[in-house]
Amino acid sequence: MKRLFVDTAGWMAMADGSDPLHIASMTARDDWLKNGGILCSSNYVVDETLTLVRMRLGMGAARKWWMMISQSPRCKIEWITPEREEKAVDWFFRWRNQSFSFTDCTSFVVMKELAISEVLTADRHFITAGFAIIPGMYGVQVCMGSNLDL
To answer: In this structure, which CATH number among 1.10.10.10, 2.60.40.420, 3.40.50.880, 3.40.50.1010 belongs to the domain 3-79+117-134?
Structure first.
């Protein structure tokens, strides 16, 4: 089964209807799922996203987002183990000329380990690290929202 990694920026774009990439992100997600793929993220990304959704959209939206991803058979959350964390530390310090967050580095480790090459995000750091961004940096589309559940 083909996996699409979802970064904090991707989750936020889907959660926030006012985000410029909302429609494009929802469409990309729906297309991925319709083609039999699954969404993949990490507990570090979930931590960042849950906090960000609460701060920007409120506690109700945070609860709704959490329930959606935590109960979905189409969403797999990978845990950052001590081994993955150590690899992320290596990424973080090896790429000191980049402004990667530590969470970005943990995502890179998971993606490399699971051979995931595409990520739903607007974060250019993933391009720098060698991954393909979906829906694309300038993939804003005008269309109706999704009715496909995770």
So the answer is: 3.40.50.1010
CA 150 to chain centre: 14
Q: How far apart are CA 99 and CA 112, in angstroms?
A: 19
Cβ proximity of 5 and 116 under 8 Å: yes
**pLDDT tens-place values along the chain, 150 residues long:** 899 999 999 999 999 999 999 999 999 999 999 999 999 999 999 999 999 999 999 999 999 999 999 999 999 999 999 999 999 999 999 998 999 999 999 999 999 999 999 999 999 999 999 999 998 644 433 222 333 333
CA dist list (Å): 96 to 91, 93, 100: 9, 5, 8
Element (H, E) at 92: helix 82-94
